[in-house]
Amino acid sequence: MLFNLARPLADQFILFNLFRYTTFRSGAACLTALVVALILGPRVIRWLRSLQRDGQPIRADGPERHLIEKKGTPTMGGLLILLALGISTLLWVDLRNRYVWAVLFVTYGYGALGFVDDYLKLSRHNNKGVPGRVKLLVQAVIGLIAGVWITSVTREPLASELAIPVFKEVLIPLGHAFPVFAALVMMGSSNAVNLTDGLDGLAIVPTIICAGVFALIAYLVGNRIFAEYLQLNAVAGVDQLCVFCAALIGAGLGFLWFNAPPAAVFMGDIGSLSLGGALGAVAVATKHEIVLMIVGGLFVVETVSVIIQVFWFKRTGKRVFLMAPLHHHFEKKGWSEPTIVIRFWIISMILALVGLATLKIR
After folding, report:
1. Domain assignment of residue 282, given as a range
2. pLDDT, tens digit (0-9, with 9 covering 90-100), for 274-306
3. In terms of CB atoms within 10 Å, which of 116, 133, 269, 314 comes out highest?
4. How far is 74 from 232, CA to CA, in rounded Å?
5. How large is the C-alpha radius of gyration of the chain?
6. What's the number of domains the chain is made of?
7. Is the distance from CB of 16 to CB of 9 less than 8 angstroms?
8. Closest to 85 measured CA to CA, from 42, 44, 36
9. Is the pTM of this model over 0.90?
């Protein structure tokens, strides 16, 4: 909004010329989201506590200490992230950019689904929210609409092609199937973050790291000069997603202030589903879907651990892991929560560096 208001005045007032720079607005968006989250955080948490006397339902089959240490902690803290993210993004982004609106559609569409899921769990006092098939169907519809939306905005023939990291000239044409592929990326990313969200701070920091990587990718891909130098596929207008990702980083840091061990609030599905969907949508818009699998490798591993556990248990009646997702396996092995969380953060940082390396290796 500020960009759209300041742009006509930039030639008359030098100060307003700052708003033309994506880097300035990205930094401002990050700081704005952080401040908004820190200011609203205590109020949102008090409100959630007043509505949730018993806090988030705890899995009876989970680690025993969760029934003691985490009982009574309110959930749906993702609402704080969405508030800070939305306010900051709308304040600093170019409101005419259609990529931004497509990503916001996915973010808040998945957030609404997560809200309903959290509400049902709280009202029923158990972990049964929206049925799995219904959840996947809603995610698929939202993802498909966003996929068509993003494809219509992107220039041809890149709009319907899948870029392969490292191999600069390799583009796989998917044609009319691309929106379906895009929807699968968003659904997979959303559910992967949701599965990872099980310990204090475990999901939000890798999400922040992924957002940081894709803020850089969006800026480079959206700038034709940088894109040509790095031999990337330029996507005009996608640089505005750098502002969105920066706002996501700020909102995530603000949430982490209250989610750091011992957490005062949990993210809930309203946060994990929306953040994962946002990352997936940004990856689709920037044509770096496969890089998301590398940078978000921690989320992928957590998801694969659940798939392996379910498949093998149904097949043999035995478990591969003591408990899935993977972070619970290490809890069962006696690792302390801070040890698991920090080591997973380190792994996420390493994967981010590997993902960034694909931008230069050609």
Report:
1. 2-360
2. 999 999 999 999 999 999 999 999 999 999 999
3. 269
4. 44
5. 20
6. 1
7. yes
8. 36
9. yes
